[in-house]
Amino acid sequence: MKKSILREYAKLIVRCGVNVQKGQEVLINCGLDQPEFVAMVVEEAYKAKAGLVTVNWNYQPLTRLHAEYQEIESLGAVYEWEKAKLQQLEKQLKDLKFEQDNFNMSHEKMQQLLKAEKPDLVITDVKMPRMNGLELAKRLARR
Fold first, then answer.
1. Which residues have CB under 8 Å from 104's CB, separation 6+?
2. Fewer CB within a 10 Å sphere, N or C end of the chain?
3. Domain coverage including residue 80
4. In the 8-state DSSP scheme, what is residue 16?
Protein backbone atom coordinates (compact mmCIF):
# COMPACT_ATOMS: atom_id res chain seq x y z
CA MET A 1 0.00 0.00 0.00
CA LYS A 2 1.23 3.51 -0.77
CA LYS A 3 2.78 5.45 2.11
CA SER A 4 0.47 8.38 1.46
CA ILE A 5 -2.59 6.18 1.94
CA LEU A 6 -1.12 4.63 5.11
CA ARG A 7 -0.46 8.15 6.43
CA GLU A 8 -4.10 9.07 5.82
CA TYR A 9 -5.22 5.93 7.69
CA ALA A 10 -2.92 6.87 10.57
CA LYS A 11 -4.45 10.37 10.70
CA LEU A 12 -7.96 8.91 10.56
CA ILE A 13 -7.23 6.52 13.42
CA VAL A 14 -5.76 9.24 15.63
CA ARG A 15 -8.16 12.08 14.86
CA CYS A 16 -11.47 10.24 14.37
CA GLY A 17 -11.18 6.66 15.61
CA VAL A 18 -9.40 7.35 18.89
CA ASN A 19 -9.92 11.14 18.96
CA VAL A 20 -6.62 11.87 20.72
CA GLN A 21 -6.83 14.98 22.89
CA LYS A 22 -4.08 17.37 24.01
CA GLY A 23 -2.04 15.82 26.83
CA GLN A 24 -3.77 12.43 26.54
CA GLU A 25 -1.66 9.32 27.06
CA VAL A 26 -1.93 6.82 24.20
CA LEU A 27 -1.23 3.09 24.48
CA ILE A 28 -0.80 1.09 21.26
CA ASN A 29 -0.68 -2.73 21.24
CA CYS A 30 0.51 -4.15 17.93
CA GLY A 31 2.37 -6.88 16.14
CA LEU A 32 5.83 -6.58 14.63
CA ASP A 33 4.60 -6.86 11.05
CA GLN A 34 3.82 -3.15 10.44
CA PRO A 35 6.47 -1.04 12.18
CA GLU A 36 6.34 1.72 9.56
CA PHE A 37 2.58 2.14 9.94
CA VAL A 38 2.81 2.07 13.74
CA ALA A 39 5.47 4.80 13.54
CA MET A 40 3.04 6.87 11.46
CA VAL A 41 0.29 6.40 14.05
CA VAL A 42 2.68 7.40 16.84
CA GLU A 43 3.77 10.49 14.90
CA GLU A 44 0.16 11.49 14.21
CA ALA A 45 -0.67 11.04 17.89
CA TYR A 46 2.13 13.42 18.84
CA LYS A 47 1.00 15.87 16.16
CA ALA A 48 -2.42 15.75 17.83
CA LYS A 49 -0.61 16.83 21.03
CA ALA A 50 -0.72 13.46 22.82
CA GLY A 51 1.19 13.56 26.10
CA LEU A 52 2.95 10.21 25.90
CA VAL A 53 2.60 7.45 23.33
CA THR A 54 3.59 3.95 24.46
CA VAL A 55 3.87 1.04 22.03
CA ASN A 56 3.64 -2.56 23.28
CA TRP A 57 4.94 -4.92 20.58
CA ASN A 58 3.99 -8.58 20.39
CA TYR A 59 5.06 -11.42 18.13
CA GLN A 60 2.47 -14.14 17.52
CA PRO A 61 4.89 -16.90 16.39
CA LEU A 62 6.46 -16.81 19.87
CA THR A 63 3.03 -17.18 21.45
CA ARG A 64 2.36 -20.18 19.21
CA LEU A 65 5.72 -21.75 20.12
CA HIS A 66 4.94 -21.30 23.79
CA ALA A 67 1.61 -23.07 23.36
CA GLU A 68 3.13 -25.83 21.25
CA TYR A 69 5.93 -26.79 23.65
CA GLN A 70 4.26 -26.34 27.05
CA GLU A 71 2.67 -29.08 29.07
CA ILE A 72 -1.15 -28.99 28.96
CA GLU A 73 -1.35 -28.21 32.70
CA SER A 74 0.93 -25.17 32.39
CA LEU A 75 -1.06 -23.58 29.54
CA GLY A 76 -3.85 -22.62 31.93
CA ALA A 77 -1.44 -21.12 34.46
CA VAL A 78 -1.17 -17.38 34.89
CA TYR A 79 2.48 -16.54 35.34
CA GLU A 80 3.79 -13.70 37.48
CA TRP A 81 4.90 -11.71 34.42
CA GLU A 82 1.36 -11.99 33.00
CA LYS A 83 -0.08 -10.74 36.28
CA ALA A 84 2.43 -7.88 36.27
CA LYS A 85 1.48 -7.03 32.68
CA LEU A 86 -2.22 -6.90 33.63
CA GLN A 87 -1.41 -4.75 36.67
CA GLN A 88 0.59 -2.37 34.45
CA LEU A 89 -2.32 -2.12 32.00
CA GLU A 90 -4.73 -1.55 34.88
CA LYS A 91 -2.50 1.27 36.20
CA GLN A 92 -2.18 2.87 32.76
CA LEU A 93 -5.96 2.83 32.31
CA LYS A 94 -6.45 4.29 35.78
CA ASP A 95 -3.92 7.04 34.96
CA LEU A 96 -5.95 7.77 31.84
CA LYS A 97 -9.02 8.20 34.09
CA PHE A 98 -10.84 5.12 32.80
CA GLU A 99 -13.32 3.62 35.24
CA GLN A 100 -12.49 -0.05 35.51
CA ASP A 101 -14.19 -3.27 36.25
CA ASN A 102 -12.58 -6.57 37.10
CA PHE A 103 -10.27 -8.23 34.56
CA ASN A 104 -11.92 -11.53 35.51
CA MET A 105 -15.47 -10.64 34.53
CA SER A 106 -18.16 -13.20 35.31
CA HIS A 107 -20.98 -13.99 32.89
CA GLU A 108 -23.36 -12.00 35.10
CA LYS A 109 -21.11 -8.93 35.00
CA MET A 110 -20.86 -9.28 31.24
CA GLN A 111 -24.66 -9.24 31.01
CA GLN A 112 -24.72 -6.10 33.18
CA LEU A 113 -22.15 -4.51 30.86
CA LEU A 114 -24.37 -5.27 27.87
CA LYS A 115 -27.33 -3.55 29.57
CA ALA A 116 -25.41 -0.57 31.01
CA GLU A 117 -24.36 2.66 29.32
CA LYS A 118 -22.14 2.03 26.31
CA PRO A 119 -18.50 1.95 27.51
CA ASP A 120 -15.71 3.98 25.91
CA LEU A 121 -13.28 1.07 26.00
CA VAL A 122 -13.53 -2.68 26.52
CA ILE A 123 -10.51 -4.97 26.65
CA THR A 124 -11.44 -8.62 26.33
CA ASP A 125 -10.00 -12.01 25.53
CA VAL A 126 -11.17 -13.68 22.35
CA LYS A 127 -11.69 -17.07 23.99
CA MET A 128 -14.01 -16.95 26.98
CA PRO A 129 -16.64 -19.30 28.37
CA ARG A 130 -20.26 -18.82 27.19
CA MET A 131 -19.60 -15.79 24.94
CA ASN A 132 -16.35 -15.06 23.09
CA GLY A 133 -14.78 -11.61 22.99
CA LEU A 134 -15.73 -11.01 19.36
CA GLU A 135 -19.41 -11.64 20.11
CA LEU A 136 -19.20 -9.30 23.11
CA ALA A 137 -17.67 -6.58 20.93
CA LYS A 138 -20.37 -7.05 18.26
CA ARG A 139 -23.15 -6.82 20.83
CA LEU A 140 -21.66 -3.67 22.37
CA ALA A 141 -21.23 -2.08 18.94
CA ARG A 142 -24.89 -2.74 18.02
CA ARG A 143 -26.14 -0.65 20.97
1. none
2. N
3. 60-100
4. I
